[in-house]
Amino acid sequence: MVSMDLSASITLLLTISCCLWNTESRTYSSVLSVPNGSSWGEWGPISFCSSGYANAFSLKVEKDNWTLDNTGLNGIRLYCDDGTEIESRVGPWGTWTRNLFCNKSYLVSYSLRVEPRKGILDDTAVNNIKFKCSDGVGRRGFGTTLGKFGPWSQSCQSNGICGMRTRMEDAQGLGDDTALNDVVFYCC
Ligand SMILES: [Ca+2]
Ligand SMILES: [Ca+2]
Predict the structure, then answer these.
(1) Is-above-0.70 flag for pTM?
(2) CA distance 55 to 33
(3) How many whole angstroms separate alpha carbon 80 and alpha carbon 48?
(4) CA–centroid distance, residue 186 to ligand 1 (Å)
(5) Predicted local distance difference test score (pLDDT) of residue 48
(6) Residues with CB in 5 Å of ion ligand 1
């Protein structure tokens, strides 16, 4: 009787481990990054499409607010062909711009538009992002125009982007806010 209870507990434990792992992770083949991200803030959680790949995105953008503290890009949302929408850390400013889609293909590469550090002046860090679709066509987000685009990331060698993680600086109170500072994407 004791040994039956034990084996039932082990089975239950294995079942829980299996399912928690499934909701939080996914087997991926590579991680895409770029060298020009900024380094303020903390990395958020990794978010994966439940089973498919990202074929569209939208950006949370704070337009120039004519004050001395702008933040530019505040969030990235990916739309997966399995119907899921995923985000990692998202900043509090700005509004979501309209979606940009790949034509019967998936997102496979990206480049970040980043403003270099301004010292005592107003920093914004990342201002925009552009993607390449697996059909070779580019899609530039509706971000802001400060800074310049850096080099393209590697491209997914597998189907396409299936996950993401953003680095976000929390609100600085009266200090200089920058919101989104960097992002990496996962290929499956
Ligand atoms: Ca700022
Ligand atoms: Ca500053």
Answers:
(1) yes
(2) 18
(3) 9
(4) 28
(5) 98
(6) 69, 122-123, 176-177
For the chain, the distance separating the N- and C-terminal CA atoms, rounded to the nearest angstrom, is: 45
What is d(CA 160, CA 156) in angstroms, rounded to the nearest whole number? 6
Q: Nearest bound ligand to CA 124?
A: 1
- What is the signed CA dihedral for 187, 56, 141, 188, rounded to 10 degrees? 0
DSSP state of 119: T
What is the 156 CA–ligand 2 centroid distance (Å)? 35
Report the run of H or E that residue 183 belongs to, with start and end: strand 180-187
- At residue 62, the pLDDT reads 98
13 pLDDT exceeds 70? no
Please report which ligand is nearest the Cα atom of 118: 2
pLDDT value at residue 14: 46
Give me ligand 1 centre to Cα 118, in Å: 10
The whole-angstrom separation of Cα 56 and Cα 139 is 9
Distance between Cα 155 and ligand 2 center (Å)? 33
H/E stretch holding 112: strand 107-114
Distance 124 CA to ligand 1 centre (A): 5
Residue type, 144: T
